[in-house]
Write a structure and sequence with these properties.
mainly beta; 5-stranded antiparallel β-sheet; 360 residues
């Protein structure tokens, strides 16, 4: 069990991040539907073996040894826009935006929620509980009516921490390692867990600036932002109103090669990787491009039910086309999940930095 001094320091450290956690988690307590990504990959999807992998801890709801649907994934965007429901409001208005710092496990209201690892209860609020364990690990369970008090010793699979609150239809699980959110779907964490779905890259587009309009791929020059629209499907179908909603991939990479002779110009580069941890900065717009919004986005005072989320990722925020000779290239983006499933989409681009190009 963790020492008292460690636990006290852990509480102080994590309380400083509770505002961000609350903002990230509260967005997941609502409902909607989605359209699946279009199968437009130019490279064949690569599904991995779907056999269930054991984890270091089990699921927080019964049955413990059976995989449960996950309706919200690690690092999904959580976004509440202050502006009106217009394209301008989406692209430029102020936003209470953050990364989703855990996973949302679908379960009926009133379901008992159990500790996934033994430890000591250190935080109890009206709707969430934190349990600290050995080795700097701790777990937060959100959207539950607590049945424990601070200082209680709990046992994995035995202690009921509380019940899922009415209207929540899920428990949010945040895993922290030394105070930093960790992806519960990474191999060796929650289990059993298997995923044979394949994330997709739907489109690759280009902008002069993050809130700007799209550029033609036929004429790219100077510094541009490269954006990939990508999404994944939950490993298991989610029941009820959340059925079919997209989640984010865990990693995006890209490379550039000359076309048609396929000479590598820019090797495979990781644009985003939340397979294990969140990005170093808490600013969601470091990873996502404007135009991104969560499932059933809220704009102004209204929530827009049954509208799927849009996930736009910055492959490169400031890509200098001058690093490439003028000519034709193929840019390929690949989306991955934590199980290694992946697929790719390519976009032909023309680089023209010669000042007299339009005068020829």
């Amino acid at each position: 069990m963790a020492t008292n001094s460690h636990l006290q320091r852990g509480v102080q450290r994590r309380m400083a991040t509770m505002f961000l956690l609350a903002a990230a988690i509260s967005g997941g307590a609502l409902a909607g539907r989605t359209a699946l990504p279009a199968p437009n990959s130019t490279a064949a999807a690569t599904p991995q073996a779907s056999s269930e992998a054991a984890g270091s801890y089990s699921w927080p709801v019964k049955p413990f040894d059976r995989q449960h649907p996950v309706r919200g994934s690690f690092a999904d965007p959580r976004s509440i826009f202050r502006g009106n429901p217009t394209l301008g409001g989406l692209m430029t208005s102020r936003c209470a935006c953050s990364y989703h710092q855990g996973i949302d496990i679908a379960a009926p209201d009133g379901t008992d929620v159990y500790a996934v690892r033994a430890g000591v209860v250190r935080i109890v609020t009206p709707d969430w509980v934190e349990v600290d364990s050995d080795g700097g690990s701790s777990f937060q369970y959100w959207h539950i009516r607590s049945a424990v008090k601070v200082g209680d010793h709990v046992q994995a699979r035995q202690t009921v921490l509380g019940q899922i609150l009415r209207g929540s239809e899920h428990v949010h699980l945040t895993e922290l390692q030394n105070g930093k959110p960790t992806n519960p779907l990474a191999p060796g964490h929650i289990g059993p867990y298997a995923d044979s779905t394949t994330p997709r890259v739907n489109a690759i587009t280009f902008r002069l600036r993050d809130a700007g309009s799209d550029l033609l791929p036929e004429y790219l020059h100077g510094t541009v932002e490269i954006v990939a629209a990508a999404a994944d499907t939950p490993a298991l179908p989610v029941p009820g109103k959340w059925n079919g909603l997209p989640v984010t991939p865990s990693k995006l990479t890209y490379h550039v090669e000359s076309f048609p002779n396929a000479q590598m110009a820019i090797p495979e580069t990781a644009a985003m990787d939340v397979s294990h941890n969140l990005p170093a900065t808490s600013d969601m717009w470091h990873t996502y491009a404007r135009g991104t919004h969560m499932n059933m986005v809220q704009m102004g005072v209204h929530r827009y039910w049954y509208q799927p989320g849009v996930y736009l990722f910055k492959l490169a925020a400031k890509f200098d086309t001058g690093q490439l000779k003028d000519g034709v290239y193929k840019l390929t983006a690949t989306a991955w999940d934590t199980a290694g499933n992946h697929s790719s989409t390519s976009q032909i681009i023309n680089i023209h930095n010669r000042k007299t190009w339009l005068q020829d």
